[in-house]
Amino acid sequence: MQRSETGSGSEQGIYAAYRAIERSLSATGGNANFIRNDSQLAVVVISDEDESANGAKNDPANFVKFVQDSFGSQKAMSFHSIIARPGDQACLKGEGYSAGFRYEQISKLTGGVIGDVCATDYAAQVQGIAEGVRKTLKSITLSCAPVVDAMRSILVLKDGQVYDGTRKMEGLNLVFDQMLPQGNYEVYYSCLK
């Protein structure tokens, strides 16, 4: 991959992903049904600065909610960001224009990889993203942070039966130790307000 060191200062990777999904859900146009209901969704953004606009379609939490609302289920999703990482002063004094705070936020929400845009070689990062995408086959993305206490828990049903696979929470992802067997999953939980 050869990347140019010039370009627009209008960075809107979250917005572009949002619009791609909107176009896929449209009944007309070249992207109709591009993103299937039963497939996982992995987004990769490479940017030397943060999301430059502040609209609803640029917001990490709104993006996650939009995906969940649009597909009506717990869609396996990850958002990977190769960015000027917040706090990386060497990158910000070099090739990184500004820290990618919102890209970092959305990657953490969805269990995505956060890479370094200032790296001279992206091979290891791309390999990490590939592993992250494979990991989505073992996870279900929830629409909010669940409350788990003495009164509330997370209930997972596979084809109408309780599914007791060993699991843990990572951001908004309920990650299982093993690949999820093919089936119809429903997840019941209470949201942290």
Radius of gyration: 18 Å
Q: Could you tell me the strand content as a percent range? A: 15-25%
The tally of helices reads: 5
Strand order of the largest sheet: 1-2-3
Order of helices and strands: HEHEHHEHEEEEEEEE
> Which term fits the overall shape?
globular
> Which ranges are low-confidence, i.e. pLDDT below 50, for 5 or more consecutive residues?
none
Largest beta-sheet details: 3 strands, parallel
Helix content: 25-40%
Mean pLDDT: 86
Derived from helix and strand composition plus strand pairing, the structural class reads alpha+beta
Query: What is the CA-CA span between the terminal residues?
Result: 43 Å
- Give a count of the beta strands, DSSP E runs of length 2 or more: 11
Report what the structure shows.
With about 190 residues, the chain is α+β, with helices and mostly antiparallel strands. The chain has helices at about 15-25, 60-70, 90, 100-110, 125-135; strands spanning about 40-45, 75-85, 115, 140, 145, 155-160, 160, 165-170, 175, 185-190, 190. The strands form four sheets. Strands 1-2-3 form a three-stranded parallel beta sheet, with helices on both faces. A three-stranded antiparallel beta sheet has the order 4-9-8. It has a three-stranded antiparallel beta sheet with strand order 7-6-10, with no helix packed on it. Helix 1 packs parallel to helix 2. The longest helix is centred in the first third of the chain and has 13 residues, at about 15-25. The mean pLDDT is about 85.
